[in-house]
Amino acid sequence: xxxxxxxxxxxxxxxxxxxxxxxxxxxxxxxxxxxxxxxxxxxxxxxxxxxxxxxxxxxxxxxxxxxxxxxxxxxxxxxxxxxxxxxxxxxxxxxxxxxxxxxxxxxxxxxxxxxxxxxxxxxxxxxxxxxxxxxxxxxxxxxxxxxxxxxxxxxxxxxxxxxxxxxxxxxxxxxxxxxxxxxxxxxxxxxxxxxxxxxxxxxxxxxxxxxxxxxxxxxxxxxxxxxxxxxxxxxxxxxxxxxxxxxxxxxxxxxxxxxxxxxxxxxxxxxxxxxxxxxxxxxx
Length: 284
Hints:
This protein has 284 residues and is mainly alpha-helical. The protein has one domain. The chain has helices at residues 7-14, 20-33, 38-47, 52-90, 100-137, 143-153, 158-173, 178-222, 243-246; strands spanning 2-5, 230-234, 252-253, 275-280. A 4-stranded antiparallel beta sheet has the order 1-4-2-3.
């Protein structure tokens, strides 16, 4: 029985693309921030909320960002995974070619995931703007302050932005000077943004890696290079593993069989560190 894959090999491969997605996301948000001038926020205030033109702009620019900067990294990860797995199975040092059929399948899978990301990232930006406008309309923020807050929180999830706004409310309640308030909320928002960038990268790379490893096995089975392997769920094995993932740890299933939680493969949740080990019969 030959064991292929596992966390150590996944981490080794993903280190080669580490930082590409997270930095691209931070750069994208930095570009988006420049859009929000005091005049722009005042115009939105006068319009009573997000305009149709702004909604289109957000969706369009987010789609362009995902297409040009995220999808290529996910494809690179998928193709690298195929080559590494095939090399490990065949035990050959010669360059491994990625079949056109696999490339086309990867294009389809990653294209769908890219579209999901566009919706997710666009929605969080729109929600951030709506929440800041709501604060401005309630008299809690001046136009200048609204611009500061939207620039601080435009890249956060709604839950993260609410945490920043709660901090702002608490500091106001304490009578902290306005300048100090925005300095403290900016520092907090920056920390959350960096964590979100890292979370997006880890989760999306894990999706690309685990999907690609599974599809690589299916491709090698179809081509008669291996017999059908048994899949083994592998967690990080530490006290940070969630109860859902731990329920799958060490469980063995067939290629198209679901694990006890009903999931076919990791990641189950954002920042999931699980992967799959494939146990392949030695004789073909």
